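Exam revision sheet. Question 4 asks you to relate a sequence to its structure. Input first:
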Amino acid sequence: MGRGGPVVASSLVLAGALCLSASAVLVKLAGADAATTAVARCAIAVVVLIPLAFRERTRHGALSRGGVLWSLAAGAALGIDYAAWTASIHHVGAGISTVLINTQVLVLPALAFLVDRERVTARFVITLPLMLLGISLVGGLWNASLRGPDTTTGVLLGVIAGCGYGVYLFVTRRSARRDPGLFVQPLTWASVSASVAAVMVSPISGGIQLAGIPARSWVLLALLAVLGQVAAWLFIHHGSVLLPLTTTGGLLLVQPILALGLSALILGEHPTVLQLVGAAVVVTGVATANGLLLRKRRCWADSRVRTDAPVGLACVDPLPSQRCAMAFRGSWHGTPPTPGSRPAR
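Answer key, structure tokens:
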């Protein structure tokens, strides 16, 4: 890596985190209902991703039929995630909902244990009560003035969104074994499926209301799709391949913090002290789950699927050209170092 490599790579990851943090703010500014917003962001993203997917297909080959099916399955979970998360934003605000979505760092290792029988690490055991405590603080369980149907519903929807995203990561983790080196095509198929899933669950939140949406809202929805679902993923993907895993994880921890700051600055949302403490507890739980506080580990290439990876980290690929998915929203890590090599710094 050249002298400017780490700086450029870190800047890309931070740019991706900023795009993700701005997503919730854009949802509120657009002013459209939750169901319409979820469907529109997925559909617009598909339009943007299609030419990028054809470009990847030309350069690196087509996604296999099995890869397409796995991506469609993953996208169904992603659509539920987007629908629930968008609704959560309207109930508890842009900043808090973005903190809650990171509860998916518990879902991924839980599924890996239940389905793939991967061992549960001590970090998972430590993180579980920590995250539950943070969620209870964010949800106002310890503050009588915050208890109410809106807050309870919003927190529940945020947790459901985290579960949906955890399932998406888990399915994507398994599908990545089939087509190493491909990134945009799986994301495109998943976005197509997410659009359909968001349409199917839309009646729960009042249905899709396209009539009467002003041009300004459509512009903001387009920005939401481009920044939150295309640019963010690509920035983080291309930046993370040049950085050690723990560096990328640490940089991505700024996402919920940025979301809280942006929501306060732009939307005037000011969480209570207890909610801020709860947000800090959740962020600490995310860091602990990914081994950034207790112990640092790197994702090294191996001849088999890693079963001793840190909780929240899915090392899915045995070859240098394959990928590792870390359970932060939108965080993908590419090309792990070959055995015996030193990670780039």
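Marking note for examiners. The longest strand covers residues 313-315.
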